Amino acid sequence: MKSLIQKLINEQIAESVLVKQAIAQSPETILAIQQAAQKCVAVYQRGNKILIAGNGGSAADAQHMAAELSGRFNFDRPGIPAMALTANSSAITAIANDYGYEKVFSRQVQAFSKHGDLFVGISTSGNSSNILLAVEECQQQGVESIGLTGISGGKMAEVCDVCVRIPSKSTPRVQECHILIVHMLCAAVEEVLFGKQTSAEDTSQRYANPVLLSA
What angle do CA 50, 127, 146 make, to 5 degrees? Predict the structure, then answer.
């Protein structure tokens, strides 16, 4: 039994490393990450916010990203507005009950977004109907969208402004890399807006009291 578990551990580590190496060796994926990071930085430079959503493990990733941005990532700085659309169980169950589960995110995008905001949709398949409807709503609201998906990109690759496709068909490996990408995006935002090489005075003042997420 011990040898079986050890074999499993070694295989999981090796698989995870291989996928991350594939990302590093894919110019297309690196470019998509760079474009996503630029959009995340730009949304805050113009005084807007990021909305994030996903299902299951991706819902946890959405909340993780919102926490890193509104709290802190690598160092202390003013909080910046990021909202996980997965966190309000009353809203999710009410919308699902009244309109259907596929509307749980699009309804919130309609309620909380404004022109110039950014939506990050996380789906390993790229085909989650509630994420796709949220992206459709984003297009109506003048909100740009970033998709984090698996290797095919699914339908999200066709509708998102930027789609970061992880080069793997394994859901666990894709999810592990999604949180890596989330950390890259948070690091980029924090460093560009508040790092030593960039004056953060204007941005610090702008987000000194970020309480009205839907303003």
Answer: 25
Which residue is it, tokens 């009410």?
A: 94
**1: confidence class by pLDDT, cuts 50, 70, 90:** confident
Residues 6+ apart with CB under 8 A from 102: 129, 130, 133
Which spans in the chain are helix H?
Answer: 2-24, 27-45, 57-70, 89-99, 106-112, 129-141, 156-159, 171-194, 201-206
| Alpha carbons 40 and 143: distance in angstroms, whole number | 12
Q: How far apart are CA 76 and CA 71, in angstroms?
A: 9
Single pTM value for the model: 0.89
Of 84, 138, 144, nearest in space to 118 by CA: 144
CA 21/CA 168 separation, integer angstroms: 11
